[in-house]
């Protein structure tokens, strides 16, 4: 399936992408710097927020329901439940799939800490498996290794990292064999796909973040997507103080829950951003293809896109053994960089008491020492891209 088809198959207005392609030096930062992120909200989102403000219905309501419906359709999922951020989406999904106190869950050590924190917040125990050194995502072979030694594993939380989906075919097959749930952490992978199927409907549930630097934003916000009505109903109740989802705004609370609701203001931004997500992702892929071509001859590793996968480049992450020196050269050229993530989760101070914190996970640990992300956001101009490439080339010509 082509990029165009995957963007238009559910009728989302993808536009022409001209806003990104026609950016000129007049809109570049005055100091010539190239930022690592640059959220593009747009006038349509501002108008929709204005409409919500004028309506007076600022909290949870019809605007949120409309956003949930559109986002579920985009992912190819039956249902979606909006939440206040990506972490609350993860917590909600784990509660909704039935994680119980003391259950062990296999996840990646090479991720933002929220993926493991959510397991603990839901009463579970994170168990870390190593990553594939090429994709930076959970290694199915290492998951199998752990399952061969432990009988207390209840589920998997694979992380779709940097915009690339994990090996869901293998991981879901493993989960089926061992009767495990699968919750996708898709917080960095809005629109990523495998063989034309978007992340968000590949496991029992999936979780997205709409933080400002993500591929689309609501300011702060999150979403749980699922094809299971039981999971969706439990999630909708959990984010709304455990209310009976069939009773609307009643004060009948049938379970323990939180106030994890998304506001109508955030949903209004989200609906506008979702319409532009295909445009944003095309721009990211265009920038990534330019980098792939221009950096191909240099002694650093560029991102992998396996056959059949569609990478949406939340980050364009290279690997080099002397990361600090390359980052310093880029900084000299006024190019921002980022390290995601410098310390694997199992080595974080907050995880010293977790049973698998002492594990040796060589692929994750090497990645943490060698990865460096370059600017790839949609509003990069051609001059920005040239500046990045020239800075990298300058570093390796010294």
From TrEMBL:
Gene3D superfamilies: Aspartate Aminotransferase, domain 1, Type I PLP-dependent aspartate aminotransferase-like (Major domain)
SUPFAM superfamilies linked: PLP-dependent transferases
Cytoplasm found in the keyword field: no
UniProt keyword Repeat, yes or no: no
Start and end residues of each stretch annotated as Disordered: 1-39
Alphabetized CDD domains for the sequence: AHBA_syn
InterPro entries: DegT/StrS_aminotransferase, PyrdxlP-dep_Trfase, PyrdxlP-dep_Trfase_major, PyrdxlP-dep_Trfase_small
GO biological process: polysaccharide biosynthetic process
Highest rank taxon of the organism: Archaea
GO molecular function per UniProt: pyridoxal phosphate binding; transaminase activity
Pfam families (alphabetical): DegT_DnrJ_EryC1
Keywords, alphabetical: Pyridoxal phosphate
Family statement: Belongs to the DegT/DnrJ/EryC1 family.
Stated name of the protein: Glutamine--scyllo-inositol transaminase
């Amino acid at each position: 399936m082509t990029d165009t088809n995957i963007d238009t198959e559910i009728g989302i207005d993808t536009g022409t992408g001209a806003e990104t392609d026609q950016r000129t030096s007049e809109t570049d930062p005055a100091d010539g710097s190239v930022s690592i992120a640059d959220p593009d909200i747009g006038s349509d989102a501002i108008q929709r927020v204005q409409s919500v403000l004028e309506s007076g219905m600022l909290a949870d309501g019809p605007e949120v329901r409309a956003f949930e419906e559109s986002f579920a359709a985009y992912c190819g999922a039956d249902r979606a439940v909006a939440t206040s951020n990506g972490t609350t989406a993860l917590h909600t999904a784990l509660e909704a799939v039935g994680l119980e106190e003391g259950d062990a869950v296999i996840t990646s050590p090479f991720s933002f800490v929220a993926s493991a924190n959510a397991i603990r917040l839901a009463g579970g125990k994170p168990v870390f498996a190593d990553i594939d050194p090429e994709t930076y995502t959970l290694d199915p072979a290492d998951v199998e290794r752990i399952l061969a030694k432990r009988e207390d594993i209840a589920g998997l939380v694979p992380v779709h990292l940097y915009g690339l989906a994990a090996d869901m075919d293998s991981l879901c097959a493993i989960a089926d064999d061992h009767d495990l749930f699968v919750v996708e952490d898709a917080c960095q992978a809005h629109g990523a796909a495998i063989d034309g199927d978007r992340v968000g409907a590949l496991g029992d549930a999936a979780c997205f973040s709409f933080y400002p630097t993500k591929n689309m934003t609501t300011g702060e916000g999150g979403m749980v997507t699922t094809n299971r009505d039981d999971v969706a109903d439990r999630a909708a109740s959990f984010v709304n103080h455990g209310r009976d989802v069939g009773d609307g705004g009643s004060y009948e609370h049938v379970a323990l829950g939180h106030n994890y609701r998304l506001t109508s203001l955030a949903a209004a931004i989200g609906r506008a951003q979702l319409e532009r997500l295909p445009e944003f992702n095309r721009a990211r892929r265009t920038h990534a293809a330019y980098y792939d071509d221009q950096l191909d001859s240099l002694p650093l590793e560029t991102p992998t896109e396996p056959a059949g996968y569609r990478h949406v480049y939340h980050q364009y992450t290279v690997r080099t053994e002397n990361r600090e020196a390359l980052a310093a050269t880029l900084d000299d050229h006024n190019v921002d960089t980022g390290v995601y993530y410098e310390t694997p989760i199992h080595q974080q101070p907050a995880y010293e008491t977790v049973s698998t914190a002492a594990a040796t996970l060589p692929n994750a640990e090497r990645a943490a020492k060698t990865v460096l992300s370059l600017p790839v956001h949609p509003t990069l101009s051609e001059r920005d891209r040239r500046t990045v490439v020239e800075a990298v080339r300058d570093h390796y010509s010294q």
